[in-house]
């Protein structure tokens, strides 16, 4: 079997950061309890691993004992949640994805100018709940084209759309095109809201899926961006399957498959992909090709709230940085296991 590994795949920089925040706290606190508001990222394995290490996840700030430490997940929270945390005298450490924070800031700025905001995304997604909470009177959520005739618009010249960062580009563009048709004067955000990593992973699937018989996406069922990857593969004529890990792999899935692509959602740990690769190599004598569509190599510092907390605990923050280079990491993994592979540089622009 020909096995194509899509790059980029798996963790985005925001997820790396959020997970690293919790990892760093576990090392600093050494058994002292702390809490995370909602799943730190939308992946069952990540959450369960942290639970096994003593992290407590809550869905309501009132569940957190007064004076405790609370970590806000990558999806962001509303001002009401922050206010409740202040009232309970909680130490807040913010692991919100920087791009989500950008959308929050945009919502606040437009609301202060008296504009109405059409927030494109899923009503029940934590990111949408948090963003809407920044300006609830100014924001209407648009989760489908069917919503548009029911929108209440006061002044079409003071109207802007913002988007959930993890949306499929195809889904977002369908709704945005309909909004522009309904409201020709609607404004776009100053910069694209949809995450570059989400976009890159979607472009990789869109570019590679047509040459494959099947696409396997590693990710959780409640991960919006993971589900979108399977949908994009299907839209491009290739059957796809979303699995949490290798245990969900069924040999019947691969009947008649000569070329298989493996990718992963932005919240899926790479070790789950590696376990799947080993199983496929052992069972199907795969010839592996790494197809590098966008080379993501990222290095960035710790969130300010974590650095402040660490300094308050007399922990030196100098030199503590987060690094991410999935292509290089996969090369090291394959070399370690003596698995031959080739790297195909297929770098494409976002418009291809």
What structural keywords apply?
352 residues; six-stranded parallel sheet; 11 helices; 20% strand; Cobalt-precorrin-4 Transmethylase, domain 1; globular; 3 domains; four-stranded parallel sheet
Proportion of helical residues? 25-40%
User: Domains counted in the coordinates: how many?
Assistant: 3
Mean pLDDT: 92
The side-by-side strand order for the widest beta sheet comes to: 10-9-11-1-12-15
What's the architecture of the largest domain, going by CATH? 3-Layer(aba) Sandwich
Topology order in helix (H) and strand (E) letters:
EHEHEEHEHEHEEHHEHEEHEEHEHE
CATH class of the largest domain: Alpha Beta
User: What is the fourth-level CATH superfamily of the largest domain?
Assistant: 4-hydroxy-3-methylbut-2-enyl diphosphate reductase, catalytic domain
Helix and strand content put the structural class at alpha/beta
Number of strands: 15
